[in-house]
Write a structure and sequence with these properties.
single chain, 8 helices, 0% strand, globular
Length: 204
Amino acid sequence: MTLDSMLALFGAMLVLAFIPSISTMTVAIRSATCGLSHGFFTSLGIVAGDIVFIVIAIYGLSLLADLLGHQFKLIRYLGGAYLLWLGVMLWRSKSQIEGAQVKTDSSLLSSFLAGLFITLADQKAILFYLGFFPAFIDLSGVTFLDTGIILVIAALAVGGPKLVYAVLADRAGVLLINTGAYKAINGVAGLLLIGIGLFLIVWT
């Protein structure tokens, strides 16, 4: 991976990690109701789940690239179309997030598992990464070093925003979830996904 592709991947993942979702809602609520340490462990669980999907996506895509050869472009087109759809949905979505529950009595392990299982239960995540990575990675030459770099980037880019939510929620309480900032984040993230989707369809 080049430095430019590393920075681009980090920037894109950082913005997308701020997208309002059940995972960010869970981090904020665990932190606000159970303490900052619970928000931290929930974030760790989310990062662990993302790492599982990232490894599957990278090596699954590498295998597909080897098997399909030039026909692999079809996978890129499908992935680009999926990212376009996600971007439009984000752009049009409401800022209110529903579905997370407040629990005040729990262990740090339960907070970690909450983050892990919320991520692993999102079956769309693997489709997202299958469409996302071809814009940043040369799949024909992925090495173990590249994989390690990507995992570090993911840990920082995904974990960082979750920790921001945890700290803010610990100080401000769950009212953070209902601020107008969520609508703006949705708009920016939606445009980013649309841009990546168009890149995959038009320029690859």
